[in-house]
Specification:
The complex is a heterodimer of chains A (348) and B (514).
Chain A (H helix, E strand, L loop, with lengths): L2 H15 L12 E2 L2 H4 L13 E4 L4 H6 L13 E13 L3 E11 L4 E12 L3 H12 L14 H20 L4 E5 L3 E2 L8 H13 L3 E6 L3 E3 L6 H7 L4 E4 L4 E2 L7 E2 L2 E6 L7 E6 L6 H11 L2 E2 L2 E2 H10 L3 H14 L10 H6 L4
Parallel strand pairs in A: 2-9, 3-6, 6-8
Antiparallel strand pairs in A: 1-3, 2-11, 3-4, 4-5, 7-12, 8-14, 10-13, 13-14, 15-16
Chain B lengths: L1 E6 L2 E6 L10 E6 L4 E12 L5 H10 L5 E4 L2 H11 L2 E12 L4 E4 L10 E4 L2 H7 L7 E7 L5 E5 H7 L1 E5 L6 H14 L3 E6 L7 H7 L6 E4 L7 E2 H4 L1 H10 L5 H16 L6 H10 L6 H16 L3 E2 L8 H6 L5 E6 L5 H21 L6 E6 L10 H11 L1 E7 L7 H6 L2 E4 L5 H7 L7 H9 L5 E6 L7 E4 L4 E5 L5 E4 L2 E4 L16 E5 L1
Classes of the chains: A alpha+beta (348), B alpha/beta (514).
Amino acid sequence: MSEMQTDFKKIIGEMLESSPQDIEAVGEFEPTPIDQIVEKQDMEEDDSKEIFSVTIKDRQSLKERMVDVSVDSTKRLVIAIDSSSVTLAKTKNGIIAAIKAAVVFDDHVETFGPFIHHITNNNKQKIYNYFINEIFDLPVTKNVAVLSKMPDRIRNFLERLIQRYAASKVENAIILWDGSLGTGKSQFDTPEDLMKISLTMAKGRGSSIVAITKKTTLILASNESIFSVLSDYDGPAIVDLTDKIEVFGSRIYKILGTTFAAKLTSNGIPFRIDVSSDGKSKPSSVLVDLMRSTSFYHGYPVELRNAHIYSKITKDEALACQKMIATTYNLPIVNAPDIHKVLLSPFG
Amino acid sequence: MQILDVSGSEVLLLYGPREEVEVGENIMVLDEKKKRGLVIQIIEINLANVPGILEDLIRNESIPSSKIIQNMPPDLKQFIGEVRNIKVSTGKIRKEIAGNDQDIVPWTGWVPDREVSVKVVDDQWLITKLKIGEPFPIYVGNTAYDDSRLNLSAYDIQEGGTTVIIGKKGTGKSHAAKMLLLGLIKHGARCIVFDVNDEYSGLDKTLSEEKQDQQIVSLNPGDNLRFLLDYIGLDVFIKVLKTSLGAGAPSIYELSKAWRDLAKKKEPITLETLLNKMEEDPQTSNKSIVSALERRFVGLTKTGLLTDDSDLATTLENELKNLSNGGALVFNLKGKSAEVRNVVVSTVLSKLENLLEYNKNYPPVFLFAEEAHLYIGDTDWQDIITRMRHLGTFQFYITNTPTSLPEMLIRQTDNLFLFNLQNDEDFKHVTPAIRLDNETTTAVAKSLPPRTCLVVGTATREYPFVIRTPDIKYAAGETRRFFKFDKGVASITNDVVETKDADSKKKSREEFSL
């Protein structure tokens, strides 16, 4: 077992054994209604919902930039990582959140959590420091997110940690991430150094990172959607956009890899895909290898789909977490009226 | 356990896997402050449709659990198990609890708040509160879930008048009937049993073990049961000729005429004298009618059921007289032809009706009829159910074919023993019998294991109990088998053995316990 794996097991062990911070003092808690839990479930927060302009003239020019996918390829191991967080309850001091992550290997799935955190304005800096400094060994900053964003920050840290753990378990693999490799504006929850180190670790073991975003919009100069063009294209398609992508109003936007618009199967959905290569392979070859190495669900790699499925905190798991909190810490449940509904019902 | 919902008389109860409830079990819902409560009976148990469970199950199903390594807080696994296995039980409101003494009264429609206490109720408490089983207790079994002894009062059974015992073959319905029969005999009642499977004659052994000898008298048609034709009577004889032997109206006319003539002249009435009379009569229009009747008489003679010797003849009056301290006449109809069954049953019922009608002081008789549709004709039901009941014949019907019982009987049923049934048609037919809802009969009866039944009626104060009938040892008629399997040894019967023993007609008996 590598040093990274030993450290990781220790960290996860501590997280599993630890109690939510300052929870005994809250006296009571107000669980999030179960029907609202999934709606608020945060799975990613980066530039995935961004609209990017691409300085490619039109449909024809895009097709001319397409990568030849008929080249020789290598069948490689494919693994995937994803995570999720939910707000389980409110307390008089803050919120209680649950975080879960999953890694899908070729022969098994490993899940982590749900880890339960009680986050308050008093302890959020401490939690942030724990991850950024004690786990990732990076300098602490004071710009901790607002309380409502903290569950997602913690989720992001856990995901980064597990990405490193997963990278340490494989060699010469393709590691699928949910999201992008953008930094700066696009990844204000992930320090650039943190991501760089993660990519370097994977590269050190001959693995490539492929980050897939599901919701990014890419627009050609002709105002046509690139995904629309690729959907119309008969067959798989990969277009390198790295030097053509622009973000309005951002001078600090940076992608730590090569950006593609790609449709990985003939009838699949096109996505924006960022690739950090292992250093030996061309980034586009990594995608061709991916196409040969796994199966797809509507053009989406099944490993990443499974990682999403296994990292999701289902309603019954959320209920169990709420029950555990109420039982273990003997916290009475209060149900505050929904002010929105009280004031605006039946239109609220 | 908590109340999830109340709709009409139906209550949904929610509880975790640490609590256990069974179908048929009774639940007490009590509002301590208001001194009011409900007694609810569970009719169905389901796993709750917990939000997210479908996603979770699909997720677990997509990859074998052995291939999932879970790093989860140690306590959480237990809580997830508890949430996933939350159950919802459907219960029916049966009674209301009122006052400091927690008296049980009919439900008034009152519905409790959600903050009431909900707990499994002790059956014995319920039995005592409902004052079930006194006077003249008959032990019928123990309640299925807390093993409380359930006695039914012979007085209440009698007040009801009609008891129906229904269930699939092999579920234990005859067994329940025997418990009732033995209980009635022990209290001194006289019973008549129409036994189509030769299951009751051996009960004498059970009673002799309890030093109550000679209380089960087995009467085998053609063997120790023979009737004088005169005793059978013209009406019964005509009915048998019509229904079982297919005699036409002209034949019946000629026969009736001959019978009346013989009776008028006080001459003996036998098959032979009847034929002679018809042959001698110059007015008999068609000799072929006499020939047709003669052929039928030959068939009847072969049954051995009719005798011209009054010393060999049986009378119901004498047989019942011998049971003055209680007992049962078991008419063994196993393997008998339709005409024999018809003659026996019709004669017994006819004589019983006369006895009760003309002697108002004659003690009532309890009648047990197994698979009555095999020997009671469509036209006889009404008389039996209404008139004979009024005269003092309290009836027990035992069948695995409930749809064979007429609707009129079902609606007149006062007590029901319902064993396992699966056929929906059977449920629909039976439901009016017990003033219970269809959901209860369907949900409970389908899940009853062998020798367990739902018993409800006047004898249980209309409260349905699920009981297990006790072991009972008795000697029953042996079913002739080709393939045999005894004490782990399999064999076949392939040797033809000539029987020389004069007693060979006596059926061998095999003791076994249900």
